[in-house]
Amino acid sequence: MKAYKILLCCGAGMSSGFLAQAAQKAANTKAPGTKVAAKSQSLVEDVIEDYDLLLIGPHFASHKDEFDELAGQYGIPVEVIPQSVYGSLDGNGLIDFALDVLNKS
Question: What is the mean pLDDT of the chain?
Fold first, then answer.
């Protein structure tokens, strides 16, 4: 299985940081070598080209077009993290979701 670099984005990076930690534990088992990082919205533009997938918090769903435009320059897919995964900090669910997105792109 290919190893990916997945970037999570939320406002200040706090909740996505906890989710990224949980997702990294799941990734170590489900997709060895995959790296999961969390950054605040203000830093995404500076690092996006280094990733394979951008996942944004549900509260950023209304800004998805802007993220699509930014990530699209590098051919990177953008998806909104499902509220059920985000709200429960479900690392396994996030990795399953991310791998599903990456396998379709």
Answer: 92
Active site residue 9: no
**Is the Cα dihedral 52, 6, 31, 102 positive or negative?**
negative
- The 10s digit of each residue's pLDDT in 38-64 is 998 888 999 999 999 999 999 899 999
Q: What is the pLDDT of residue 89?
A: 93
Please pick, among 9, 10, 20, 44, the residue that the annotation labels catalytic. 10
What single string gives the DSSP state of each residue in 25-78?
HHHHHHSTT-EEEEEEHHHHHHHGGG-SEEEE-GGGGGGHHHHHHHHHTTT--E
6 Cα distance to chain centroid = 5
> What is d(CA 26, CA 46) in angstroms, rounded to the nearest whole number?
26
pLDDT at 94 over 80: yes
CA nearest 6: which of 102, 89, 104, 103?
A: 102
